């Protein structure tokens, strides 16, 4: 049906898009201070910094490889609390640390959105944290790498109606991809960050054994989902000091260390966007194109939208339709039509079977046990029991047919499905399609209207009837009117 307008992915297509015209973007990569371009914002010093040594309970160092000889560690800092505490824990464990701040083109390309540089505050906090313990700080410019390996792919996916996950790509291709390649000649033993995950490395003469990615102690903050597409070679070089510590205790450690950013709020933005609103990013790089919104069950013309790429399956916010809640249930990419429904939670609309491509297994090979696994289809503490059936597509790529133990309402093509055996993350892949290989049941009238060449003949949107109460209980399949 509508899926026919979208080619199912079995591997990552990296369509390289032209870089946006700007005189600000620098094609520059520098790890040494003398070559770093001058900042266009003045970094103001932070006062009241403490460098007094603190005694830390050894339990907090258990994910810092404290029993190893002093290691040379490259620590990624963002200016936030988590990465700052990670640095201090590694320093307390006796390791030799060098901090790195990754500077990407988005932060300059959008600088006119704010009265001051968006990265200025991050840099001030990062420098202040390093100054407390005399850790050297380097600024790394990954402008071209970021556009080529992440942003271009994200834009292309949205243009094709899929919903990519920027954070997974950022970790795989930039933080632990391009950055690792860049510092490869500096002989670091490990690279560290403030992620909530745990890497178990094999000691001694068993170095041929794979390193293991495990859930963090804080299951709510756990970020193994975002790390599930790493390779074994990447995993072997990583340390995550916060993997053994709950979030609330990380905040307390920030106070013990007297960090200058101890009261700073956690970032909630998409990895590469920072303070930029997602809608602003989409509008700038894809543009807008007016389309229509149709009710999936009736074909009624309900309103207009700015472009199907602004909407994801399951989205509720931003539709601006009365009588809701309304949910995006399907998109016609070819005709720029968004289908919505108030019956999104009906039992007959839920599915538990979908296909996953672009598979990557952290051990380097497919798992031998595929019938008693757990699965995450989005970031968060929730898991499904699942089983896999392995297939090969027409291009010779491995495909997994995933069957969940329970129905899930919000499966979206382009998102990642991560797989687990107990507490161990074993790998992940990209969701190719959902709804048991069928689209949401869009009626024939809606499909006919969507294919109309001249949609101006539709006239004005219909007057939406307000339903006072919508039942979401699994025991009731009907819309309930009060």
From TrEMBL:
Output the GO biological process annotations, alphabetical, semicolon-separated.
tRNA processing
- Enumerate the spans annotated as tRNA-specific 2-thiouridylase MnmA-like C-terminal domain: 352-431
Q: Where does the source fall among the domains of life?
A: Eukaryota
Occurrences of domain tRNA-specific 2-thiouridylase MnmA-like central (ranges): 280-342
Answer whether the UniProt record assigns the keyword Disulfide bond to this protein.
yes
Show the GO MF annotations: ATP binding; tRNA binding; tRNA-5-taurinomethyluridine 2-sulfurtransferase
* Annotated catalysed reactions: 5-taurinomethyluridine(34) in tRNA + S-sulfanyl-L-cysteinyl-[protein] + AH2 + ATP = 5-taurinomethyl-2-thiouridine(34) in tRNA + L-cysteinyl-[protein] + A + AMP + diphosphate + H(+)
Which principal EC class is assigned to this enzyme? transferase
| Keyword terms, alphabetized | ATP-binding, Disulfide bond, Nucleotide-binding, RNA-binding, Transferase, tRNA processing, tRNA-binding
As recorded in UniProt, its EC number(s) are 2.8.1.14
Q: Which HAMAP family match?
A: tRNA_thiouridyl_MnmA
Q: What is the stated purpose of this protein? A: Catalyzes the 2-thiolation of uridine at the wobble position (U34) of mitochondrial tRNA(Lys), tRNA(Glu) and tRNA(Gln). Required for the formation of 5-taurinomethyl-2-thiouridine (tm5s2U) of mitochondrial tRNA(Lys), tRNA(Glu), and tRNA(Gln) at the wobble position. ATP is required to activate the C2 atom of the wobble base.
- Family per UniProt? Belongs to the MnmA/TRMU family.
- Protein name from the UniProt record: tRNA-5-taurinomethyluridine 2-sulfurtransferase
Q: Which organism is it from?
A: Forsythia ovata
